[in-house]
Design brief:
Blueprint: H1 11-32, H2 34-42, H3 64-69, E1 85-89, E2 96-100, H4 102-119, E3 126-130, H5 136-148, E4 152-154, H6 161-170, E5 175-178, H7 180-193, E6 203-206, H8 213-223, E7 226-231, E8 242-243, E9 251-253, E10 258-263, E11 277-283, E12 294-303, E13 315-321, E14 325-328, E15 331-334, H9 335-346, E16 352-359, E17 362-370, H10 380-398, E18 402-407, H11 409-416, E19 421-423
Parallel strand pairs: 3-4, 3-5, 5-6, 6-7, 16-19, 17-18
Antiparallel strand pairs: 1-2, 7-8, 8-9, 9-13, 10-11, 11-12, 12-13, 14-15, 16-17
Length: 424
């Protein structure tokens, strides 16, 4: 099957393709990953029992807690000598480790290239990537995917937004890859400085966050460009998992790389197309870190109607989160992670409220902590030093600034109203 034809397979061809890959994956993890072998033995299922795609529903789920519990290498399905790249990113107690074989890197590069190509990127383009350091894995994959298409790539730098605007204008950037909030921030800065958007810019590919129809229209009209959206999950494959076609009606999923299910939040039972539930992913083409029925935490629904573009890959709409994580500038931050960090720094869990403010469209974080007797240090300086230690550790882990603010308990309760996250 030629690569450009893969997204137009018939239902029968998809069934055969995915079933063969699924059976191979199940057999590999059973033989090589003790975690999965133990889970399957507990429910009395063997690889040969997976005879059709629906048999996948008999297998247990994988969660982010499982990824952290098996730190660092216990979920690898290949010997460590076959791993050529490692990434580690935050987990509640332990980091989550992701490994890649040479074949994995090649597959991800091809997948990311396909995503960018279908969004409109070509060898004639100058691609500027503007993402926060906390998205370093995506930055690497997007850069390699664009370079694989022959595009000229300007990767992120630590310079200011004003410097990035100058680079965009002087280098005649044609494609901007960033988050929706940062794109809006750049547009705001240009208007504030009386600058016209560069005429060279024709396409914005937005990742990492949701966007409202109003903000999308604001970007398209303000920059005079086309906006396309991409979807991905760092723990699974990366930014090329789903993308909008020219019809801009949901994400086409890379069905040759993974299987998608939508499950009921409470029962875990599969839901029919059109019903809202949690997105669950099983990888089909990953060698180093295959995942079986991974609960993503994304609220989604499968779009039942065929896409007018002619592609036969399944489509989904993403409609929120159901796992307590929040997205800040494309970086997913879990309250579990915050609480683990509070315990590390303060040696107890104070009452807190995560406050998310918008400043010129960019989200900024404040952690409000209720004052109590356990917080007190011998001096005010000591209090500030502990707060600074938290701020420093937070930035080290997430690549994002987060300012600590000590408040009266009554004020925190009044503002939070029983919630842990406040958007203002």
């Amino acid at each position: 099957m030629h690569p450009e034809n893969i997204e137009y397979l018939s239902p029968e061809e998809w069934l055969q393709w995915q079933l063969e890959l699924l059976q191979s994956t199940i057999n590999r993890v059973y033989q090589r990953v003790p975690f999965y072998r133990k889970l399957m033995d507990q429910i009395g299922i063997k690889p040969e029992d997976v005879k059709e795609l629906d048999d996948l529903q008999r297998l247990p789920f994988t969660t982010r807690d499982h990824l952290a519990e098996n730190y660092p290498y216990d979920l690898f399905a290949v010997p460590l000598r076959d791993i050529v790249r490692l990434h580690a990113f935050p987990g509640p107690q332990q980091p989550v480790v992701k490994g890649f074989t040479t074949r994995d890197l090649k597959a991800i590069r091809q997948l990311t290239s396909r995503f960018l190509y279908n969004c409109g990127v070509s060898s004639e383009d100058i691609v500027q990537i503007c993402l926060d350091p906390g998205m370093s894995i995506w930055i690497e994959e997007l850069k390699e995917g664009a370079e694989n298409l022959g595009a000229l790539v300007i990767p992120p730098d630590p310079q200011s937004s004003s410097h990035r605007i100058r680079i965009m204008r002087d280098f005649r950037t044609t494609v901007l890859i960033t988050t929706p909030s940062y794109a809006l921030h750049l547009l705001h800065l240009m208007k504030e400085k009386g600058l016209r958007p560069p005429e060279s810019l024709k396409l914005a590919i937005l990742v990492g966050e949701d966007i409202t129809p109003e903000d999308r229209l604001r970007l398209e009209q303000g920059f005079s460009l086309n906006v396309r959206l991409g979807y991905g999950i760092t723990e699974v494959i990366g930014p090329g998992m789903g993308y909008e076609c020219e019809k801009k009606n949901g994400y086409h999923l890379a069905a040759d790389y993974f299987l998608a299910e939508i499950i009921h939040l409470e029962t875990g039972k599969p839901l029919p197309p059109g019903e809202l539930g949690e997105l669950v992913i099983t990888t089909l083409a990953v060698k180093a870190n295959p995942l079986i029925r991974f609960r993503t935490g994304d609220l989604a629904r499968l779009i039942p109607e065929p896409c007018p573009c002619g592609r036969t890959t399944p489509r989904i709409s993403i409609e929120g989160r159901c796992d307590g994580r929040v997205s800040i500038r494309g970086i997913k931050v879990s309250l579990q992670y915050i609480e683990a960090l509070l315990l590390e720094v303060y040696h107890h869990l104070p009452e807190y409220l995560l406050c998310i403010r918008k400043q010129d469209y960019l989200e900024e974080l404040e952690l409000w902590i209720a004052i109590n007797e356990k917080l007190f240090e011998p001096s005010i300086l000591g209090l500030h030093q502990v707060a600074e230690r938290f701020e420093r550790r937070f930035k080290e882990i997430f690549g994002l600034p987060c300012r600590v603010k000590l408040v009266e308990k009554a004020h925190l309760e009044q503002m939070g109203k029983g919630q842990r996250v406040l958007r203002v």
